[in-house]
Write a structure and sequence with these properties.
MetI-like fold, 24 helices, six-stranded mixed β-sheet, Rossmann fold, 3 domains, about 650 residues, alpha+beta
């Protein structure tokens, strides 16, 4: 067959020859203001450059006084920057993890930037001067700051410290919390998380803060002059020398200013280089191999027997069985992720017991890294500064074992790939390998395979099914196939509460909530029993009043006999009913006579369909509830089903099930 017109060799057309992100230009008024702002910064600097006596600059630099001032300024800037980083990074890390008082502390850190330099110098004098508050202690220790070089360094630290704190604190607050949380979850200590995950992630911010602190130290004037004075060769820095020279020889002052600007620009450029040179590699398509289920199970089997997880206390407690997979089912906002976070130790405030150990209760809290519980969410949480093998090795503690795990998972080709170069699906699979590599006794999976292709998902499902007995697994899912195929129980949540724990068969037969019914492909209404018609062998028929419409359903044998007035739940499949469009005149019939067949009157709220299904799912609003009716596409067109159309759903009694409510 000939290639299609316009295609490349072999009938294929390249999508693009070169990929680049489309430009996002600012509106012209903003661009004009931006140009003025840039001119305001660069204009004075350029004007200063015109006044510098460039021909005499080498001679000025060679003078002993200039050399002494430059050496003293550089020494003070280097020492103060090192001290600012040494103090500022721990302060920023502490602020990032603080709760109460963190906002006030951040405000107080900014004070040196808001204080006039002379006032800052007076504050240091009041605290550390020869007659300051701390003078007796300093005298006893033989320390002297006022009018001495250490005072210059201290003045610079006082002024430059906020630059480091602000830069690092801002980077820490932008860091995806899933990254350090997942590291702690796989068992890494706080020190290991800090040194191997957190600090490498914010290293460019540390460098930027250090560069700003160094540049600010070079230009510090008022605080230094007030606290340390201007003694030649002792405390006279370049800014102090420039201030004095401008009264005596402006050409020399301009020359010294040019030197100071050049050093500051070089410092800022050096500090910004790591961030500017860092490139995020584009994800590359790679074919994953097959998962060796037996080998993966062997490598990831926990060393201790699985344990149960108990949530709550007393009669209201819910137990997640040991060595089994339990589904967590509920709509968005029902509390599934909150429950997972409480069990994993990312949140506190519940009553949680893992095995015989109480890990969360009033007065008791066991950190995540000590629980033996690993939580894996849709966010992979892999350290972006690591390779795949090193990220997995953080959980296993053994790089060779990490490579063996990746090979068993069919991901050996990714071992030396850096995390930012992974696609979403690749990162999700690597994160699952990492979670299993920690060999947790309890594994919580919060839809981690959402970004994984169907074939790989099936392979991971086979592994999870084969290894279900090795550990206690909690699976947050919106997929009925996962509930039926992977789970031995389901816990249903609604409005932040656990409302039921039941088997998948029970969930499918009698879903306790509307969401659970939709998940299992059923309609669900609640009402009150108005009549019971017993049948042979305990089977019979029950009439239930659902918002003014009487529905008839079957009563299976073996169930407790209901009585009129009891609450009941009615369920049926969307394909069980038929839908008719009715006009306004016919719409006042109310509920159909139960002897003629029940009917539910409502209006079409929305229509759904899938290509190839040959049917339309009509969602019908019935009072405050909604039901779904599957209607053949041709029939939906013939009956003019539209959003807002009045309709009536007919339900054959033999297709409706009645269950006791509560």
């Amino acid at each position: 067959m000939a290639a299609a017109a316009g295609t490349g060799p072999g009938g294929r057309t390249p999508v693009a020859e070169r990929l680049d992100r489309a430009p996002r230009r600012a509106p012209w008024p903003l661009a004009a203001v931006a140009a003025l702002a840039l001119a305001l910064i660069l204009g004075p600097v350029a004007a200063l450059g015109l006044r510098v006596p460039w021909a005499g600059l080498p001679g000025i630099l060679a003078e002993p006084g200039t050399v002494a001032m430059l050496r003293l300024s550089l020494a003070a800037a280097v020492q103060s920057t090192l001290l600012a980083v040494a103090a500022g990074v721990p302060l920023a890390v502490t602020l990032a993890g603080a709760r109460g008082g963190a906002r006030l502390a951040r405000f107080l850190v900014l004070l040196p930037l808001a204080m006039p330099p002379v006032v800052a110098g007076m504050a240091l004098t009041a605290a550390l001067g020869t007659r300051g508050v701390a003078a007796p202690v300093l005298d006893a220790l033989g320390l002297e700051f006022a009018f001495a070089f250490p005072g210059v360094v201290l003045s610079h630290v006082f002024i430059s410290l906020p630059f480091v704190v602000i830069a690092v604190d801002s980077a820490l607050r932008q860091l995806d919390p899933e990254i350090p949380d997942s590291a702690a979850g796989v068992g890494m200590s706080r020190a290991a998380v800090l040194t191997r995950v957190t600090l490498p992630a914010v290293a460019p911010a540390v460098a930027s803060g250090a560069g700003l602190a160094f540049a600010r130290s070079l230009g510090e004037f008022g605080t230094t002059l007030t606290f340390a004075g201007s003694m030649p060769g002792v405390t006279r820095t370049m800014p102090l020398g420039i201030y004095l020279e401008r009264e005596l020889d402006q050409d020399r002052a301009y020359a010294l200013a040019a030197v100071l600007i050049a050093v500051a620009v070089a410092a800022i450029a050096a500090a910004a280089a790591p961030a500017l040179l860092r490139r995020t590699p584009a994800p590359v398509a790679r074919v994953a191999g097959a998962i060796d289920v037996a080998r993966m199970r062997e490598l990831t089997r926990p060393t201790a027997p699985p344990v149960a997880v108990t949530v709550g206390a007393g009669a209201a407690a819910t137990v997640f069985a040991a060595g089994a997979t339990t589904a967590l089912v509920g709509p968005n906002g029902s509390g599934k992720s909150t429950l997972a976070g409480l069990i994993a130790g990312r949140l506190r405030g519940g009553r949680i017991r893992v095995g015989d150990t109480v890990v969360d209760a009033p007065g008791v809290f066991v950190p995540a890294r000590r629980r033996g519980v690993v939580l894996l969410t849709q966010a992979a949480g892999l350290p972006r500064t690591a390779t795949v093998a090193s990220a997995v090795a953080m959980a296993t503690g053994d790089r060779a074992l990490a490579r063996e795990l990746l090979a068993a998972a069919g991901l050996a080709e990714l071992a030396e790939v850096r995390v930012p170069a992974l696609s979403g699906g690749q990162a999700a699979q690597v994160a699952l390998v990492r979670a299993l590599g920690a060999r947790p006794g309890v594994l919580i999976l919060d839809e981690p395979l959402a970004a994984v292709d169907a074939d790989s998902t099936r392979q991971w499902h086979r592994l999870l099914a084969a290894a279900a007995a090795d550990r206690t697994t909690l699976l947050v899912t919106h997929d009925p196939v996962e509930v039926a195929g992977l789970c031995s129980a389901a816990v249903v949540l609604e409005a932040g509460e656990i409302v039921a724990r039941l088997s998948p068969d029970e969930l499918s037969a009698a879903p306790p909530t509307r969401f659970a019914a939709e998940l299992m492909g059923l309609n669900r209404l609640t009402g009150t029993i108005v009549e019971v018609r017993p049948g042979a062998d305990g089977a019979g028929e029950v009439l239930v009043d659902c918002a003014g419409t009487v529905l008839r359903g079957g009563l299976s044998g073996g169930r407790p006999a209901p009585a009129p007035g009891d609450p009941a739940m009615v369920t049926w499949a969307p394909s069980a009913g038929s839908l008719e469009r009715v006009d306004d005149a016919a719409g006042d019939r109310g509920g159909a006579d139960p002897e003629e067949g029940p009917g539910l009157a409502g209006t079409v709220a929305r229509l759904r369909g899938a290509p190839g299904d040959g049917a339309v799912a009509a969602v019908v609003a019935v009072g405050e509830a909604e039901i779904t009716v599957a209607v053949p596409t041709a029939e939906a067109i013939a009956r003019r089903l539209r959003v807002g159309a009045p309709v009536r759903c007919q339900l054959p009694p033999g297709r409706v099930s009645v269950h006791p409510a509560g």
